[in-house]
Specification:
Length: 146
């Protein structure tokens, strides 16, 4: 049973990190290249791509947290590493909350003049969230090898 929980935990964490990396380093640059100066077209397609994903990601985060807590209850050696992972997950989740419920609505209703700053801000937020989730994933791997 422990192996199944560990596979679910690591698999979903990898999916979250991979999805963020793919969006940030592949999809977003390709959209910018494809649409060129057509800022409005790029924003419209970005909104379509992002639409409906909020609750899927929240579910993903919840299962990662739940399985992580379960794994910690099974084996609490190196608990401090898991505590750090939990902090990273909480901060990344907070950033996701901010992006989903504050930043994104502002971006949808932004004027053309406001949009550039919001796009830059999103890159910083997404990169930070990716870094935190990636560090948590790396700490999980480290915890199994010490």
């Amino acid at each position: 049973m422990t192996a199944i929980v560990a596979i679910i935990h690591a698999g979903l964490a990898a999916a979250w990190v991979g999805g963020m990396a793919y969006s940030l380093f592949v999809v977003q640059p390709k959209l910018k290249k494809y649409f060129g100066p057509d800022e409005e077209g790029r924003e419209m397609l970005t909104a379509v791509i992002a639409s409906g994903n909020r609750w899927k990601v929240i579910g993903l985060i919840a299962v990662i947290a739940f399985t992580g807590a379960g794994l910690l209850l099974i084996d609490h050696d190196h608990w401090w590493i898991h505590a750090i992972k939990a902090v990273f997950l909480l901060v990344a989740t907070g950033i996701f909350w901010y992006v989903s419920w504050r930043h994104w609505p502002r971006r949808i209703f932004a004027t053309a003049a406001e949009r550039t700053g919001l796009q830059r801000q999103l890159i910083v937020l997404a990169t930070t969230m990716l870094g935190l989730a990636g560090l948590a994933f790396a700490l999980g791997v480290l915890a199994t090898h010490i």
